[in-house]
Amino acid sequence: MTLTQINIDTHLLPILGQVSDPEIPVLTVLDLGVIREAKEKDGTVYVKLTPTYSGCPAMDVIGDDLKIAFAPLGKKVEVELVLAPAWSTDWISESGLQKMEIYGIARPLSESADKDVLLAGAKKVICPQCKSTNTHLVSQFGSTACKALFKCEACLEPFDYFKCLK
Amino acid sequence: MKSEHLYNYILGIADNSLILGQRLGELCGHGPSLETDIAGTNISLDLIGQTRSYYQYAAKISGENKTEDDIAFLRLERHYKNVLLVEQPNTHFGYVMGRQYLFDVFHLLLLQELQFSKDETLAAIAKKGIKEVSYHKRFSGDWIKRLGDGTPESTAKMQEAIDDLWPYTQELFDMTAADTAMAQKGIGVDVSKLKESYYKEVTDLCELATLKVPQIAYFSRGGKKGVHSEHMGYLLADLQYMQRTYPNMQW
Description:
Chain A has helices spanning 3-6, 13-16, 29-32, 58-70, 94-103, 111-119; strands at 35-41, 44-49, 76-81, 105-106, 135-139, 147-152, 158-162. By secondary structure, chain A is an alpha/beta fold. Chain A has 2 domains: 3-89, GMP Synthetase, Chain A, domain 3 (2-Layer Sandwich), CATH 3.30.300; 104-162, no CATH class. In chain A, the strands form 2 sheets. Chain A has a 4-stranded mixed beta sheet. A 3-stranded mixed beta sheet of chain A has the order 1-2-3. Chain A is elongated and about 55 Å long. Chain B is mainly α. Chain B has a single domain (4-245), classed as Ferritin, core subunit, four-helix bundle (Ferritin). Chain B has helices at 4-25, 34-61, 68-73, 84-87, 93-114, 120-148, 152-165, 177-184, 195-208, 232-245. In chain B, helix 1 (4-25) crosses helix 8 (177-184). The interface between A and B is medium-sized, with 23 and 27 residues.
């Protein structure tokens, strides 16, 4: 998803780029693709935010963090939650995916490969520590709604896998 | 209120998610293993997230000065419209998964229709929910198979849960006045039409899990009309504790 498609006033980008996801702090809200629109009008920034999962508790925190980020500039923030179109892991930027891997979370696979690993036990997820694909699913649900828990058979480390959501 | 039927219709759907979410939330820290504990609370979080979207919408159209919290916490037992199935207790893990699966199959069928609702908000909530609920169903269905086709003890326990929960399934397909009114307008779903697909899917899975499909003539109903089972009061006492003890407290 490119920036033109998500309709953000370019002068707001540097500030938005400072607001990170509270669960995965290496990712900014722009990397994650949850900001669908940001427009400034008369000193107020109107932000349309979309949740990754319906119950994602990070949304309330992100709303507050946006207010804090714009406060020193004397700008107010109005956040509106939008549900359609529903968020997809395709909206995470390439640089976001790379940061996620360095942080220790395996990036989402394609939809069909994702089904293979989550349902059929295929060994396709790459361990973010040692890059082996000799990994197996421990639990379909992980530390947050968006992740599943895996273990690497090569380096024996457990790790999170960001589930494909389309 | 502009549309009492729409308001009641939204609550009819949302209350199921709230109450099941609360039941699963009770397992937080008490799951049989770390992985299932986390799975239960993850599913709970999805359901409560969906509930919030529904309640926020209901609060907006109520025309009164209501918030989502008022709807969740400040109603009396008779005003909750959830089906009896979702309020059944976490007797053992077989019950937790049995209740979950018997609801998930219905829930997914419902949302798959609701996504075409003429009401944009309901369609959007449904579309988002489909992704989550498909995942829930995979999880609960896998456990039914694993426990049903497992050891003699797990088979017996899973069968016990299915036998006890089965009488609550037919209520899912009862049409309330709000259901009928909203289905006619193309906003709501005619749930009575989901019955055949539901029982076919559930029966197929039970067979795969070597479980016997209960053959019974009597089904319990009442939750949709606010007449709940003996478990509901205790559940609400827990759910509403904070608001009843400290009225109007906020986070």
